[in-house]
Design brief:
With 384 residues, the protein is α+β, with helices and mostly antiparallel strands. Helices cover 27% and strands 27% of the residues. A hairpin with a 6-residue loop joins strand 5 and strand 6. It starts with 11 loop residues before the first strand and ends with a strand. Bound molecules: flavin-adenine dinucleotide (FAD).
Length: 384
C-alpha cells in the first residue's frame, strides 16, 4: 500500500478543507490530529445562522473530537426543554432534566464555529478566514491545484485531497459535477424580534407549532432577541410572509408562538429573511480526489434538529476515512459511503414518523407530500 503525502513543501498540503462550519472544522481537527498537513479555509459568506439549537448529546461528540471546551464555553443560552404543539393544539413538553448530558443550547453560531476552528488550529491545522476555495487543475500525480481568494491577491496552493465542507452550496462536489438530489422544497422565513423590555418571558425552551401549511418555530437568542421562523414549501409560501406586516398577520393566527412573541417589539429595520431548508444529498459523498461532509454531503429538514450533530459526525468520520485512504487503504471511502447511507436511511424513517404525528390537515398539500414515501427513484435532481 502506498501512502499519499503532499506535505513538506511551502503551499503543499495533504488536504485542503473548503468551509469552516462544524463539518469542516471537525474534519480539519481530525486530519491535523492524525498528523496530516491541512489547510482549513472559510469564506465566511452567506446569511448568518441565527436561532439554531444544539442537542445536549453534542457534548459526547465534541469530547470524541477532542474539541476542548472553547466552542461551548460561553455566549450560548442553555435550553432546558422543547415544547411542541404538533398533532394537537395543546403544548407537549420534552424536558432535559433527566438527560445525563444536561441541557442543550441555543447557539451563537458564529462563536461556536469560531471556537471549533480555533480547536482545529490548536491541533495543527492552518486556518484561513474569509478565504474562498476554488478547485483548479488536476496535477499529474492526481493532486489538486487550488486557488484561494481572500483579502489580498489570489494565491495558489497544492493538495492531494479536497474536503467539501461548503454546506448546502456543495461547491467542490458541484464543480466535480457530482449528482445531488433533493426530496422537498422546504424554505424557512425568519424574523428577529427585539429583546423583551420587561424581561417577563425569560422562557428558554424552544417551541414548535404546526399549522395547515407548515410549522412555526421560536426560540430566545443568546442576545435576548427572539427568533420566529415559519417553514413551508417554496410554492406554498404566502407572498405576505415577505413583509414585516404580513409576517406579523400570519404569526398572530398562531396560538403559542404568538404568545411568546408578543412581548418582543419589532425591530425597526428587520425584514423577514428567506433561507432554503429542504432535504438534499449527494448520490455518492466522495469522488476522484474529494470527499464531502456535513450539509454538502446530506442536508436535513431542520425539524430533525440534527444538522449540526450530523455535520460534526460526518466531518469526523469522513476525515478518519480520508486518513486511512491517504495511508493506502483503498476501501476506506466505501465504508464512509456506507456510514452516510445509514444516516440517510435513519433520517428518512424518523422524518416520516415525525410528520405522520400531525394528522389534522391530511388533505393539505404540505402534509400530504410528507406522507408519501420518497424512494430514490422519485427524488428530483437538484439544480445548484
Ligand atoms: C433555517 C434553518 C434552521 C436550522 N436550525 C438548526 C438547528 O436548530 N439545529 C441544528 O443542528 N441544525 C440546524 N440547521 C442545520 C444547520 O444549519 C446545518 O446542518 C449546519 O450548519 C451544517 O454545517 P456544515 O459545516 O456542513 O455547513 P455550514 O454551517 O453551512 O458551513 C459551511 C461554511 O463553508 C463556507 N463556504 C462555502 N463555500 C466555500 C468555499 N468555496 N470555500 C471556503 N468556504 C466556503 C460558508 O461560508 C460556511 O461558513 C438549520 C438549517 C436551516 C436552513
Amino acid at each position: 500500500m502506498t501512502a499519499e503525502r503532499h506535505s513538506g513543501r511551502v503551499g503543499h498540503y495533504d488536504v485542503v478543507v473548503a468551509g469552516g462550519g462544524p463539518a469542516g472544522a471537525a474534519a480539519a481537527l481530525t486530519l491535523a490530529r492524525a498528523g496530516r498537513t491541512v489547510l482549513l479555509a472559510d469564506s465566511g459568506g452567506g446569511a448568518p445562522k441565527i436561532g439554531e439549537a444544539l442537542p445536549s448529546s453534542a457534548r459526547t461528540l465534541l469530547d470524541e473530537l477532542g474539541a476542548g471546551r472553547l466552542p461551548l464555553s460561553a455566549g450560548h443560552l442553555p435550553c432546558y426543554a422543547n415544547l411542541s404543539s404538533w398533532g394537537a393544539s395543546v403544548l407537549g413538553r420534552t424536558d432535559f432534566i433527566n438527560d445525563p448530558n444536561g441541557p442543550g443550547w441555543h447557539l451563537d453560531r458564529a462563536r461556536f464555529d469560531r471556537g471549533l476552528r480555533e480547536a482545529a488550529r490548536t491541533a495543527g491545522a492552518e486556518v484561513a478566514e474569509r478565504t474562498t476555495v476554488r478547485p483548479g487543475a488536476r496535477q499529474p500525480d492526481g493532486g489538486w491545484s487550488v486557488v484561494l481568494r481572500g483579502q489580498g491577491a489570489p494565491r495558489e496552493v497544492r493538495c492531494a485531497w479536497l474536503v467539501d465542507a461548503s454546506g448546502r452550496s456543495h461547491a467542490i462536489a458541484s464543480s466535480a459535477r457530482a449528482s445531488r438530489r433533493r426530496t422537498d422544497r422546504l424554505v424557512a422565513t425568519c424574523l428577529e424580534l427585539a429583546p423583551d423590555p420587561t424581561e417577563r418571558t425569560g422562557e428558554t425552551s424552544s417551541l414548535v407549532e404546526s399549522d395547515q401549511d407548515g410549522w412555526w418555530y421560536t426560540a430566545l437568542l443568546p442576545t435576548g432577541r427572539r427568533l420566529v421562523a415559519y417553514f413551508t414549501d417554496a410554492d406554498l409560501a404566502a407572498p405576505a410572509l415577505r413583509s414585516r406586516e404580513g409576517f406579523g398577520r400570519l404569526l398572530s393566527r398562531t396560538r403559542h408562538v404568538a404568545a411568546r412573541a408578543e412581548a418582543h417589539p419589532v425591530l425597526g429595520d428587520a425584514l423577514p429573511r428567506r433561507a432554503p431548508a429542504h432535504s438534499a444529498h449527494l448520490d455518492l459523498p466522495s469522488g476522484s480526489g474529494w470527499i464531502a461532509v456535513g450539509d454538502a454531503a446530506a442536508a436535513f429538514d431542520p425539524v430533525s434538529s440534527q444538522g449540526i450533530l450530523t455535520a460534526l459526525f460526518t466531518g469526523m468520520t469522513g476525515a478518519r476515512a480520508l486518513v486511512a485512504r491517504l495511508d493506502g487503504d483503498t476501501a476506506a471511502l466505501a465504508s464512509y459511503h456506507t456510514t452516510v447511507a445509514g444516516i440517510l436511511t435513519a433520517y428518512r424513517r424518523n422524518h416520516r414518523a415525525v410528520y405522520a404525528l400531525e394528522d389534522r390537515w391530511q388533505s393539505r398539500p404540505f402534509w400530504q407530500r410528507r406522507r408519501t414515501p420518497h424512494p430514490h427513484d422519485t427524488l428530483r435532481k437538484e439544480s445548484v
